[in-house]
Amino acid sequence: MNFSGLIHDFGPLTVTGLAQGAIYALFALGYTLVYGVLRLINFAHSEVFIMGTFACLITWGFFGLDQNSAQPSVGGAIGYLLLGLAVAAVVSGLTALLVELVAYRPLRRRNAPPLAFLITAIGASTVISETIGVLTHHNPRGVPPMISTKPVVHFGNTDITGLQILMVVLALALMVLLEWFVGRTRLGRGIRAVAQSPDGAALMGVNKNRVISLVFLLGGLMAGVAAVMYVLKIGDTRYDQGFTLGIQAFTAAVLGGIGNLRGALVGGFLLGLVGNYGSGLFGTAWHDAVGFVILVVILMFRPTGLLGEALGKARA
Amino acid sequence: MTTVDVPPTAEAQTPAPLPRRKRNGIRSWFANLPWPARTGILVAVVAAAYLLPYTADVPVIGPQIITTGTDWRTTLFTVSYYILLSLGLNVVVGYAGLLDLGYVGFFAVGAYTVSLLSSPDSLWHTHWAWLETIPVAVAIAMLSGLILGWPTLRLRGDYLAIVTLGFAELIKIIATSTPGFLRGDTGFTRIPAPPGHHADGTPLFGVRDSTPYYWVGLTLVIVVIFAIRNLDRSRVGRSWLAIREDEEAAEVMGVRTVKFKLWAFAIGAFVGGLGGVMFAGFQGFVNSNTFVLQFSILVLAGVVMGGSGNIAGAILGGALIAYIPERLRGVTDPISHTDLFQWRFVMFGLVIILVMIFRPQGLIPSRRRAMELRDRRKEAAPE
Questions:
Q1: Residues A276-306: pLDDT tens digits?
Q2: Does residue B87 sit within a domain?
Q3: Between 20 and 30 A from B216 (CA), which of A13, A27, A136, B362?
Q4: ipTM for this prediction
Q5: Which pTM value belongs to this model?
Q6: DSSP at A4
Q7: To 5 degrees, how large is the angle CA B312–CA B317–CA B322?
Q8: Could you tell me the pLDDT band of residue A20, with boundaries at 50, 70 and 90?
Q9: Does residue B372 belong to any structural domain of this protein?
Q10: Does A27 touch chain B (CB under 8 A)?
């Protein structure tokens, strides 16, 4: 127990926690969207994310960028970033669609019991991550320097880097965008209708399968953005890094109330912060453990998470 | 967009046809045999199981079955403890319908208790023999099941899943970050093997031949099968069935749901702990890398793939998840002549997906569950 350390480093821990939370939040959106519509834990979502990290790095690799290359100019960095984000989002989105098509749709057609979906998801996750593993010879892949790690803002001992600001802003912006999409557009209304009552929505003429595909695509896009932020923050990626991060992100989704978009955001940031304070207090090895303990405690008092499950019940 | 798509898809319009009941399957054939024949077949199957280490000596088929890249008898032992774990998890997932994603946690508790009590590396320096540790280890595993179950069993399905996942992760984190107590990566060495000597004084449970380990594993599997089968047919089993089908209805009819769910957890944990004890005794070495979360997910995949809620299914599933990757070890593919071993998990994943798509109820579906599901479908779409 290191209280003085926690108090001394409170500022830096908060900043890095929020940055980590931004990744969790975007990642968790994928779990929450799918759960809200299908009542199903999409175990393959962590691999959707990992596909994003590799897609981004391979794209940058085409331009000759690797972990040893020099820092590109500001204009170049913005260009590379936008390109990386776009490619990662598209590849992750398509992977999510593919998973839905191969692993879930045939089961829905056969009216399979809920556990069967979980198992095909595990199968799909294994296939994707191990294929990446074999193709990359199980080695990590480094990330080229993109954004200067020099802090842009100082508060006492707290340094905030440009990347951290970018991450939090991007997460919030995407959240607002997604909220608008689900709450205000015609497609979003379809999503909410299917979430509320799949059969009712089908009777009203909503194409259920298309809505489900859309939900997977949206989750994949968000995971792709999270993937780019992740590689920039961590500095490398490996075929098996998705699993643990996925579990954390799923914890975040449950913490906020799975099936609830804002819950994913709240849960993500909360988990990022709590994990960081916990590692400040007990040591970094306990980072993930603190999150789980908080989750259990919160679930005991609010069994459906902080904000409750509510994709279908969101304001019309 | 899509909202004007009339008529709705075929899937929404007509319910899938109800599966036809097979009237002359192998299982009804078996059930209709006179009892001496049934006993005879059972004895023959058990005897064949005990003779499996000598498969390599069977002409023609033998060499096809055995693993070429690893020791066949060690593989058999691996298969036996995977079956044990599948049987235990089947109680939790298949019977009581509680989704447990952290089953490896109980396995770890069992293995670590053995290590702490018997390994010379342990802080406690108790140096117990392997046999002495068994009751303590399974009791502590059971207790950990109760401790995990008590606060969490009020949660609904998917929340329970994440909490159990957290439990397994927590145990691994404790193991990795307490270098003094659970010794992290360094682990415990020289965990004693089961007792016994050959006539010439060499230990019965040595490193050269895994056959005795396999026989111990198989014996435990058989004992556990009988215990679980009888439990399933008792008041406890009927309560599990009721809880699995409709928890609220069960509660209303006077089934004490929390109590029986706790029982399911404790029994699952007991069997998982037993698996851990066997593993520790065989391996002689336990460290934090042994208990990766993927392991429990693998076992869960085995249970569901085999047919959850069914003992035969759990056995088949557990055996397949242990056997398939080992069988692929050391096999070269005919096209590019690379070792197929590195693709083993990819193929494994594909097999899981295909099995679930073509047999969503598992390879050997539980009849009782199949009937329940038929009932439920009728409720959903009355004809």
A1: 998 888 887 788 888 888 888 888 788 778 8
A2: yes
A3: B362
A4: 0.84
A5: 0.84
A6: H
A7: 130
A8: very high
A9: no
A10: no
